[in-house]
Specification:
29% of the residues lie in helices and 37% in strands. The protein is an alpha+beta fold. It has two domains: 2-75, no CATH class; 79-197, no CATH class. It has a five-stranded mixed β-sheet, with no helix packed on it. The protein has a four-stranded mixed β-sheet with strand order 3-6-11-5. The longest helix is centred in the first third of the chain and has 43 residues, at 36-78. The protein is elongated, with a radius of gyration of 36 Å.
C-alpha cells in the first residue's frame, strides 16, 4: 500500500502549490516560492504513508482474532471431552477388589462412598459420537456384591480396544482416565488393586 501511495505522488516539476502560504493539516508555513513544491510533495507522501500504516494497524487485531477463532474451532472439533461420575455405597464393605481397565489414580477423601470420576477424551470424533458412546455405557464401571463383605468394582467393557469406533474420517482414539475417591477409612495396596477397610 505504501508503494502504491508513492507511485501516485506527482513529479515535483508538475506539483502546483500557489502562493507562499501552504497548509499542512493543522499547520501552515510561509516559505520561499522555490521551497514550496518540494515541501508540499513531502507532505503528500507523509499523509498517504500514514494513512496506509493506520489501515494496516487497524486490520491486525481483526486478522489475529479470526486466526485464533479458526485454530480454536479446529482444535475443539478434533478433541472432545466429557466427565462421568459414578458413586458406590461401601458402608458394609471390608474389601474392594479393583479391576479397572483404564488409567486411574486413587485419592482418599472424607466421604462414605467410593466416587469414580472418569474423564473421556475423544480424538477425531464429534460431540454427538462421544455422547452416544457414553449413553451406551462404553465407559461404565459396575460393582459386584455377590461375595459380601468383599466386593469387586470393574470396568463393564474392558475389551473396548478390540471394538474400536470408526467413522468416514478415520478411526477414533479414546483416552479414558479415572480418579477414584476412596473413604479415608480404607487403605490400598501399592499396585492399587485392593482396598481394605482399616481396623477399628
Amino acid at each position: 500500500m505504501l508503494k502504491g501511495a508513492l507511485s501516485r505522488v506527482p513529479p515535483t516539476d508538475n506539483f502546483d502549490c500557489p502562493g507562499r502560504l501552504c497548509v499542512f493539516g493543522q499547520f501552515f508555513a510561509l516559505l520561499k516560492s522555490t521551497e514550496l513544491p518540494e515541501l508540499c510533495r513531502a507532505y503528500f507522501i507523509f499523509s498517504h504513508a500514514s494513512h496506509a500504516l493506520t489501515s494496516l494497524t487497524s486490520m491486525r487485531p481483526r486478522l489475529l482474532t479470526l486466526l485464533c477463532t479458526f485454530v480454536f474451532a479446529a482444535s475443539a472439533h478434533a478433541q472432545m471431552r466429557r466427565t462421568i461420575y459414578q458413586v458406590f455405597d461401601v458402608d458394609s464393605v471390608k474389601t474392594v477388589n479393583l479391576e479397572i481397565a483404564d488409567i486411574y489414580e486413587i485419592y482418599s477423601w472424607a466421604g462414605s462412598t467410593i466416587l469414580i470420576e472418569t474423564n473421556v477424551q475423544l480424538s477425531h470424533g464429534s460431540a454427538e459420537i462421544l455422547d452416544y458412546l457414553i449413553k451406551e455405557g462404553r465407559y461404565d464401571v459396575a460393582m459386584d456384591t455377590i461375595a459380601m463383605p468383599e466386593v469387586k468394582i470393574y470396568t463393564k467393557m474392558p475389551d473396548r480396544k478390540k471394538k474400536r469406533v470408526k467413522t468416514p474420517d478415520g478411526e477414533i482414539t479414546e483416552i479414558p482416565e479415572a480418579k477414584i475417591f476412596v473413604p479415608d477409612t480404607f487403605i490400598w495396596t501399592n499396585d492399587r488393586k485392593v482396598l481394605t477397610r482399616k481396623a477399628n
